[in-house]
Amino acid sequence: MQPLTIPATRCSPLVEFDPAGGRLRIEGESYPENSFEFFAPVFAALAEALEAGTGPVTLELSLSYLNTSSIKCMIDILDMLEAAHKSGRPVAVLWHCDRENDRALEMAEEFKEDVSLPFSIVAR
Amino acid sequence: MSEFDLFDLQTQLSRQNLLICFSGPFRHSIIEELGLAVKRYLEQDNVTKSALLDVFSVYVEQAQNVRNYTMRREADQSLPEGSGIVVIGREEEGYVVSSGNLVLAEDVAPLVAHLDRLSGLDKAALKALYKEQARRPREDAAGAGLGLIDMARRATRPLRYAVRPVGDRTTFFSLAVHV
Question: Which residue of A has its CA nearest to B71?
Fold first, then answer.
């Protein structure tokens, strides 16, 4: 499996997926013109990694703003990880938040409410 | 003979304490550029990060709603190439973000029904509705059906709208969100 790198743009986040280390990192803001199209390669890469291996997968997020369409995509990503968690795969989510950004903190906590997988929110 | 003079328009706009007013086709690049300008103005206004993000989110959601709708109606040829208007103004207790665009008359009733429903819900009910909608399969190529609910959650009062028929087949729809 190839690593995936999508450089950040003004309206879309940096995405770095390292399949060997099982680390998917998404960082920045997300309000692209079509979030579904933007996240399609991310879904595909994650699906492949979850199907192909057995090692741990960590989703590391540092997102200060998501439009609602991106939030839907993030929910879909979390649902994939939750399904893997329920079938015994070691997965975890780590969300870095800016201490002064209440909205991002609230968003992270809302995502956490809907999953049972290990989910840490770290405020910096 | 009439002289072309923007003074009256600008005076009218200035009276409303506007930060930004844009009228025209909502290309994604325009939405981005205006978004940057919005952030910069608000940073100068010394607002909290949450307040800035509330205004920014509500702006992005409205602008993208107008863009997605006008693109969809242009694609199925039920409306000519669309344009819209977005306005951000400063008020005593916060900001108001408004938008307007032409919609097909047949699209008005479901939209108004949705907004009327939202205006009757408290924060907890809005959150529950949001979560329910978020888990539904996508119906629309671009959106998730969450924008209006998200705006209603951030707003300091129920979302306000106005509808004005334009010809037989179209209506001008305006939305105002106070944050």
Answer: A33
Rg (CA), chain B: 17
Q: Report the alpha-carbon distance of residue B161 to residue B52 in Å, rounded.
A: 23
What pLDDT is recorded for position B1? 47
Interface confidence: ipTM more than 0.85: yes
Whether A2 shows a pLDDT value over 90: the answer reads no
Please give the average pLDDT of every successive group of 10 residues along chain B, which has 179 residues. Answer: 74 84 93 95 92 97 95 84 89 94 94 95 97 86 83 96 94 96
The per-residue pLDDT for B90 is: 92
Separation CA B55–CA B20 (nearest Å): 12
CA angle, A80 then A86 then A92, to 5°: 65
DSSP code of residue B122: -
* List of domains in chain B: 7-178 (3.30.565.10)
By CA distance, what is A111's nearest residue in B? B131
Average pLDDT, chain B: 91
Compute the distance between CA of residue A62 and CA of residue A89 in angstroms, rounded to an integer: 23
Partners of residue A110 in chain B, C-beta under 8 Å: 127, 131
Strands A14-18 and B18-24: unpaired
Residue B141 is classified by DSSP as S
> Angle between the B49-75 and A102-113 helix axes, to the nearest 10 degrees?
70
Domains delineated in chain A: 4-123 (3.30.750)
> What residues form DSSP beta bridges with A61?
A26, A95
Helices A102-113, A68-86: crossing angle, 10 deg rounding:
40
Q: What is the mean pLDDT of residues A21-50?
A: 96
What type of residue sits at position B5?
A: D
pTM: 0.94
Chain B partners within 8 Å of A75 (Cβ): 134-135
